Amino acid sequence: MIRVAYAVCSETRGKPLTRALCDTRKGAEQVMSRLKGSDMDAGQTTYWIAELGAEAAAVREYYGAAVT
Amino acid sequence: MSLPQTWHGDMSRRAVTRLRELVQSGGFQRATAVDPVSGELTNTESRALFAALPAITGATSPGELLDTGLLAKLPRGLSEVMQEPKYVFGRELFVQSHVNHRVRDPQRPVGEYRADSELGFTHRARLLGEDDDRFVLELEGAPALLRVAKTDIYAWNEPRGVPSSGGVLANVHIDYNEPLMKAQICAAFVDLAPEIETADFTAHPDAVKAQQERLVSRLAARQRMRYAGTEGYNGNKAGVLFTHGQGICFVQRAVAAGFLQAFTRTLAFEVMVCAGRTLKTDTPHGFVVVTLRPSMTRYVSDPAWHEPLTDLRVAFFGPGWGHDRRLVGFEGLQDADTTPSIRLPELAA
User: Fold this and answer.
1) Which of A1, B24, B284, B338 has the most CB within a 10 Å radius?
2) What is the mean pLDDT of residues B186-209?
3) Which whole number is the average pLDDT over B81-110?
């Protein structure tokens, strides 16, 4: 797989989401840290970073400009 | 030199018989083991067997299914149910209008009309009639009935997905000739055959809907993917991803759509590949909308959230109960050649 993006993922009560797409791992870690601080139910949420391939480019339009 | 058609038919019927033995002996899951990196089947015998199976697509007719040996009998009244009009009085439709997705009353669903809201999709428009080239709809909160071009209504409500020859959605390659895709579809037919063969579309509408709900839900529940960043194959073959893969919601719902499309003509339902957002955090989220015929009842099938089939009115009710989503748009190809059938009163302006 050719890495295209880093996805910041979260899962609350069994419902996983990709919260943001980032161009770098550092950017993804910053976004994850911000979400941990701002999510209302952060206490019941698991966060992680996933490496995505070409599917990231296919859904990029939904996420707006990538965080670098 | 090409081989005669009957030779291929005999080969695939023999493969279906062998697959049935495999499914009934409980060995199917083991036979689908793949290399997690390449997605290649690890068992050479499985590879040969699955490659010999018939390719079932959204274009495969119920009659052709009988020829393959996957079904011995079709549901009673199936051909009649597919002739029933789809645009009928009282049907709930997706419509783009000024709609509110904020919770104003936790006991009431979101998605009502509000003049000061942004343009968006709601699931709550109800079809009342037709007026020339427009449909007439009612939407809670709207000061008057809505008159919307039929072409728009079709664009927002007719099936969306991959062509029956296959295609790509969210970089997922849906290839109905891929051995594992063939195996997953054929195994589902084998498993569900007793219930499909005894399904009765001439029964009471509530009973018809209940049997379809049960069957489509069982089909959707066969998909067992993990979310991205965990374990499993992360390539792009739909058949491999189906039970061995990982992916974000947009990938998982592309796999679901490709799989479910193969059953639409046998169980009388439609599939729409949808993009949405959550209500709480406005995060993009992908899912599939399933419409049963002839009731035109809608459901959300959301593999990433482990919801095989949730009634649309619950799935879009509001951010409570964990059903936190709204519709934003559609993806995939739509067959523009067919004009859906209508049975409605004329409601001139």
Assistant:
1) B284
2) 98
3) 93
